[in-house]
């Protein structure tokens, strides 16, 4: 399972990188409107339009992707059926909500996006005949990997699946989490979790009467 999980982790890392950068760009764009109330208004109107047009064109099922995403996580981890675009729809609605300044938390939606992506990747691999990995297994691995990529917290992602699902979940998640973290380590939903790498070497002060080290 290490190979498929590692590949899925790379996909999760790329999506996490895109997700965080799009969210940052949306927030910067809405910040130009001035008062936060304007950002709230734009985010609310955009979300309402998406859901309204979805119902107009008979895509009422999109409303299922509102909320925390707990329902999608439950279906994904049990190996159930989800549309291949479930991760994209949940990501789009989450971006609109967070960029607009609405409060509701990021953790559950991020886990839901990852779980849905895992199901989509498992179905895609099966359709191509590349590999046979159970939906539920890949959903667990990619859920943890996407969380690690979005938060820059791989250890936290590992502890999540270990406490929720047990040692087997941690074992299948480690390759995916590692790959996602390496891909998306330059970005995060939480800027304080990003390391500040120094490119300038530092040296201890020279002892009195001694020479300073050459640079």
List its salient traits.
membrane; 8 helices; 66% helix; 215 residues; mainly alpha; ClC; chloride transmembrane transporter activity; Clc chloride channel
Report the CATH C-level class.
Answer: Mainly Alpha
Assigned CATH superfamily: Clc chloride channel
Q: Which stretches are poorly predicted, pLDDT < 50 over at least 5 residues?
A: 197-210
What's the helix-strand series?
HHHHHHHH
The radius of gyration over CA amounts to 21 Å
Residue-averaged pLDDT, rounded?
83
CATH-defined topology: Clc chloride channel
Beta-strand content: under 5%
Q: Please summarize the sheet with the most strands.
A: none
The helix/strand class is: mainly alpha
Number of helices: 8
Strand segment tally = 0
Number of domains: 1
Helix amount: 55-70%
The CATH architecture designation is Orthogonal Bundle
CA-CA gap between termini: 47 Å
Shape: globular
């Amino acid at each position: 399972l290490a190979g498929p999980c590692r590949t899925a982790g790379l996909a999760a890392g790329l999506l996490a990188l895109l997700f965080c950068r799009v969210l940052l760009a949306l927030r910067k764009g809405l910040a130009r409107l001035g008062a936060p109330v304007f950002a709230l208004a734009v985010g609310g109107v955009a979300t309402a339009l998406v859901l309204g047009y979805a119902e107009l064109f008979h895509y009422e099922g999109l409303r299922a992707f509102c909320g925390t995403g707990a329902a999608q996580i439950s279906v994904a981890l049990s190996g159930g059926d989800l549309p291949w675009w479930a991760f994209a729809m949940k990501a789009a609605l989450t971006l609109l909500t967070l960029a607009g300044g609405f409060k509701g938390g990021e953790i559950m939606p991020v886990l839901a996006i990852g779980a849905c992506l895992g199901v989509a990747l498992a179905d895609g691999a099966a359709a191509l005949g590349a590999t046979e990995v159970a939906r539920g297994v890949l959903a667990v691995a990619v859920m943890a990997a996407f969380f690690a990529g979005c938060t820059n917290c791989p250890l936290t992602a590992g502890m999540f699946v270990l406490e929720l699902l047990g040692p087997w979940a941690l074992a299948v998640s480690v390759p995916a989490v590692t790959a996602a973290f390496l891909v998306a380590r330059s970005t995060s939903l939480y800027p304080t979790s990003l390391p500040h790498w120094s490119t300038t070497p530092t040296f201890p002060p020279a002892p009195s009467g001694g020479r300073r080290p050459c640079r």
